[in-house]
């Protein structure tokens, strides 16, 4: 029994010695294959180095460089395979390779490489979804763009196309969710995309409100507003709905919170205009004038001034 145990120990020792002596050489072979674009072979060798590294208790400086380099270049190899697949228009393969690159980069705590490859995944899905979107096949476009958006939500071109696909598929809340996320991005870096997202939100919300107004479904408008992530828009829509219900007291009750929720002068002016209209209907003319004086931006400025002029007693 003692002799067998010694043999096993000896074998384990040999494995450890192999890992220590060959890890640098294997890394060099991997580098050579990577430079020759033999990426599959290179990846296998880099994986071998990384696995062997777990068996080395105290790797020396050269071994540490080999292990760290293997982690870095394995990500690079998958990335280059993805680029080659894109050039060959093999988009499914490209996504697979970029996904491997992103996953290994995350595993090895290389945030920059992870984000780079996730961005590339998004770009490939963007290309794949473009034909369906341009052909007005919005169901397919949604299926493809959604995967790209999950990989890279900061690809605003694709995100806007995804939102538009939702809107045109009568999936209003989903479109609003994507647009609201866009408006929450860095305003300096994504100003143009934010403006376009806000424009879509305004247009499609007005469309939804108009449909419900035509059906006299003001409770439906309030229910729709409750589902919105954009608090400012939700508050304004709710006030409009209560105007349709002729519940002017409720409009006054909601006005303070609605004004506070607005983030632009136009938004605040719109709410003040609605408040002024409510006070006018309640024949509280001084309050109506005071509210209308706060309408300083947007489409209701001229109307507000006309109301003020009409309600102001002649001297």
Fold and architecture overview:
- Among the domains are: 1-109, no CATH class; 232-315, Serine Threonine Protein Phosphatase 5, Tetratricopeptide repeat (Alpha Horseshoe), CATH 1.25.40.
- The protein has 15 helices and no strands.
- It has helices spanning 2-35, 39-53, 61-87, 91-107, 111-134, 138-151, 156-168, 172-183, 191-214, 218-226, 231-244, 248-261, 265-281, 285-292, 301-311.
- Residues 1-18 have low confidence and may be disordered.
Secondary-structure blueprint:
Blueprint: H1 2-35, H2 39-53, H3 61-87, H4 91-107, H5 111-134, H6 138-151, H7 156-168, H8 172-183, H9 191-214, H10 218-226, H11 231-244, H12 248-261, H13 265-281, H14 285-292, H15 301-311
Shape descriptor reads elongated
Count of alpha/pi helices: 15
Strands, count: 0
- Helices and strands, in N-to-C order? HHHHHHHHHHHHHHH
Give the C-alpha Rg: 31 Å
Strand content: under 5%
Please outline the major beta sheet.
none
Q: What is the arithmetic mean of pLDDT?
A: 91
Concise overview:
80% of the residues lie in helices and 0% in strands.
Feature tags:
80% helix, elongated, Serine Threonine Protein Phosphatase 5, Tetratricopeptide repeat, 315 residues, 15 helices, mainly alpha
């Amino acid at each position: 029994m003692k002799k067998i145990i010694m043999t096993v120990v000896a074998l384990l020792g040999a494995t450890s010695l192999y890992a220590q002596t060959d890890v640098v050489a294997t890394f060099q072979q991997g580098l050579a294959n990577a430079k020759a674009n033999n990426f599959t072979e290179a990846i296998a060798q880099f994986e071998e180095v990384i696995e062997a590294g777990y068996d080395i208790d105290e790797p020396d400086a050269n071994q540490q460089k080999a292990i760290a380099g293997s982690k870095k270049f394995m990500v690079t190899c998958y990335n280059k395979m993805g680029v080659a697949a894109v050039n060959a228009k093999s988009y499914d393969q490209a996504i697979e390779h970029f996904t491997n690159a992103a996953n290994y980069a995350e595993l090895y705590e290389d945030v920059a490489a992870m984000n780079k490859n996730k961005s590339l995944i998004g770009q490939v899905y963007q290309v794949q979804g473009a034909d369906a979107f341009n052909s007005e096949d919005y169901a397919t476009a949604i299926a493809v763009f959604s995967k790209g958006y999950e990989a890279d939500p900061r690809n605003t071109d694709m995100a806007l196309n995804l939102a538009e696909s939702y809107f045109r598929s009568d999936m209003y809340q989903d479109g609003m969710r994507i647009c609201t996320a866009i408006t929450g991005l860095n305003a300096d870096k994504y100003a143009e995309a934010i403006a376009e997202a806000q424009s879509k939100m305004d247009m499609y919300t007005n469309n939804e409100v108009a449909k419900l107004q035509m059906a006299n479904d003001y409770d439906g408008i309030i229910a729709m507003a409750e589902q919105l992530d954009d608090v400012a828009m939700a508050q304004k829509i709710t006030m409009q709905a209560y105007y349709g219900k002729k519940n002017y007291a409720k409009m006054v009750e909601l006005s303070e919170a609605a004004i506070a929720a607005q983030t632009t002068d136009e938004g605040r002016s719109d709410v003040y205009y609605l408040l002024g209209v409510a006070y006018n209907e309640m024949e509280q003319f001084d309050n109506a004038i005071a509210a209308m004086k706060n309408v300083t931006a947007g489409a209701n400025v001229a109307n507000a001034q006309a109301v003020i002029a009409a309600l102001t007693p002649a001297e």
